[in-house]
Automatic annotation (TrEMBL):
<dbReference type="Pfam" id="PF03094">
    <property type="entry name" value="Mlo"/>
</dbReference>
<feature type="transmembrane region" description="Helical">
    <location>
        <begin position="305"/>
        <end position="323"/>
    </location>
</feature>
<keyword id="KW-0472">Membrane</keyword>
<dbReference type="GO" id="GO:0006952">
    <property type="term" value="P:defense response"/>
</dbReference>
<dbReference type="InterPro" id="IPR004326">
    <property type="entry name" value="Mlo"/>
</dbReference>
<keyword id="KW-0611">Plant defense</keyword>
<feature type="transmembrane region" description="Helical">
    <location>
        <begin position="157"/>
        <end position="178"/>
    </location>
</feature>
<keyword id="KW-0812">Transmembrane</keyword>
<feature type="transmembrane region" description="Helical">
    <location>
        <begin position="364"/>
        <end position="387"/>
    </location>
</feature>
<feature type="transmembrane region" description="Helical">
    <location>
        <begin position="12"/>
        <end position="32"/>
    </location>
</feature>
<feature type="transmembrane region" description="Helical">
    <location>
        <begin position="61"/>
        <end position="78"/>
    </location>
</feature>
<keyword id="KW-0112">Calmodulin-binding</keyword>
<feature type="transmembrane region" description="Helical">
    <location>
        <begin position="407"/>
        <end position="428"/>
    </location>
</feature>
<dbReference type="GO" id="GO:0016020">
    <property type="term" value="C:membrane"/>
</dbReference>
<dbReference type="GO" id="GO:0005516">
    <property type="term" value="F:calmodulin binding"/>
</dbReference>
<comment type="similarity">
    <text>Belongs to the MLO family.</text>
</comment>
<keyword id="KW-1133">Transmembrane helix</keyword>
Length: 478
């Protein structure tokens, strides 16, 4: 056994093997780095918002690299942290069949042959300190205890964290692409409006509000019963025709009349797309709160609780609530107009306001969409990770009656968020009291931001100078 360990050590490994493996790893890393570099240059030249989103992805890759480094460095420490065997009997994700025939603290994990093992035997040469880790496990065994985390479990946790982060970026990008494709179809509405405006074509006569298509489709009368009907209509509306042409025309005009009245030909669609691309930076990132939710969900994955089945409904419920609220904001704009006017001359103008959103904060909707996409990516990545690692018959998969609905819910959430909720968010959040900096082009944005920073510095210098003068004056008085 000792001879085999010596042969496996680096000092007894042929140099051509070490050089060949290092060359392959370096070439792959350089290719990936150069690819991201050229992609960044292209996006920076053509689309500043997506370039900043790419920077967020790079930050996530750096975080993953750091987590990987920590797992490798502290592997021996974890292996040498010994705990009593009875501690491993609580909150197991799988029930141990024939526990007497298994080492203490080892749960049933299903098939032992994984995709990683098939592709080159990676799992047997995956850590730099495998020998020391094994010695740590043997040390615990001599004391009648078990390691805090087994070598196999540590490796699988390592892979899962990587799969989760990659899946989140992938599903977020997919949502943005599908949602952006639908929003891009609205561009023909924008072009038609500007063409009609240039030709002087537009409604000029006085019309009762009930005859306007925007009011007719959204307004359901007054009273408590009508408000309940309005919420119900908003809930159903998100599943079909979430944004009609009359909705786009009305909200576009309301935005222009509120924020840029002097520019009736303002390209609202282009501004909306720039704002959405900017928000993509937030959607694709993973904050500390999201990682905390992952830890909580891993904690609740106890055999018999079916926690992941019930948790799969959380992003769906939140998504339906967000979609209903966004549709209700459009309906509320119609209610405000109907409550103030009996007839409208010319174009219908609505009044954007933060009061229509939860707690007067339109950004809350973005945070919820961010959380929904991350949780959905967590559910789907966990499913496919278990499928590839342990197989379809693993206890992690739970019963078919719990497994299939989770997978179906994940697909439904992805499609509904892409084709309904995200387009709704893109246009409805422009109905707040303030516009976003994307109303300016990139060069103007940089100029305004630079001017604001200089103004802050000058203000700080003036305050510091006045404070020094007052102190000096106080010394003179003293």
């Amino acid at each position: 056994m000792a001879a085999a360990d010596e042969v496996a050590a680096l000092q007894f490994t042929p140099t051509w093997i070490v050089a060949a493996v290092c060359s392959v790893l370096v070439l792959i890393s350089l290719a990936a780095e150069r690819g991201l570099h050229h992609l960044g240059k292209t996006l920076k030249k053509n689309n500043q918002s997506l370039y900043e989103a790419l920077l967020k992805v790079k930050e996530e890759l750096m975080l993953l690299g750091f987590i990987s480094l920590l797992l490798t460095v502290f592997q021996v420490t974890i292996q040498r942290t010994c705990i009593p065997p009875r501690w491993t009997e609580y909150m197991l994700p799988c029930q141990r069949p024939g526990a007497s025939h298994q080492p203490p603290g080892v749960a049933a994990t299903g098939p032992r042959f994984t995709v990683a093992e098939i592709l080159g035997g990676i799992s047997r040469a995956r850590v730099l300190s495998e020998g020391e880790a094994g010695a740590g496990a043997g040390l615990c065994q001599k004391e009648g205890k078990v390691p805090l985390l087994s070598e196999e479990a540590l490796h699988q946790l390592h892979i899962f964290i990587f799969v989760l982060a990659v899946a989140h970026v992938f599903f977020s990008a997919t949502t943005m692409l599908l949602g952006g494709a639908k929003i891009h179809k609205w561009k023909q509405w924008e072009e038609e409006i500007q063409k009609n405006h240039a030709a002087g074509i537009g409604p000029k006569k006085v019309l009762p509000v009930q005859q306007l298509s925007f009011i007719r489709e959204r307004y359901k009368g007054f009273g408590k019963d009508s408000m309940a009907l309005c919420w119900l209509h908003s809930f159903i509306k998100q599943f079909y025709g979430s944004v009609a042409k009359s909705d786009y025309n009305t909200m576009r005009l309301g935005f222009i009349m509120t924020h840029c009245r002097g520019n009736p030909n303002f390209d609202f669609h282009r501004y909306m797309m720039r704002a959405l691309e900017s928000d993509f930076k937030k959607i694709v990132s993973t904050s500390w709160s999201l990682w905390v939710s992952v830890v909580i969900f891993l904690l609740l994955n106890v055999n018999g609780w079916h926690a992941y089945f019930w948790m799969a409904f959380l992003p769906l419920v939140l998504l339906l609530a967000v979609g209903t609220k966004l549709e209700h904001v459009i309906a509320q704009l119609a209610y405000d107009v109907a409550a103030r006017h009996t007839a409208i001359e010319g174009d219908l103008v609505v009044n954007p306001s933060d009061e229509h959103f939860w707690f007067g904060q339109p950004r809350i909707v973005l945070h919820l969409i961010h959380f929904i996409l991350f949780q959905n990516a967590f559910q789907l990545s966990f499913f496919f990770w278990i499928l590839m690692t342990y197989g379809f018959e693993s206890c992690f998969m739970d019963h078919v009656g719990f497994m299939v609905p989770r997978l179906v819910l994940g697909v439904v959430i992805q499609l509904l968020c892409s084709y309904s909720t995200l387009p709704l968010y893109a246009i409805v959040t422009q109905m707040g009291s303030y516009y976003k900096k994307e109303i300016f082009n990139e060069h103007v944005q940089q100029g305004v931001i630079g001017w604001a920073e200089k103004a802050k510095k000058r203000s700080g210098l003036k305050e510091g100078h006045s404070t020094a003068e007052s102190m000096h004056g106080g010394d003179d008085v003293a």
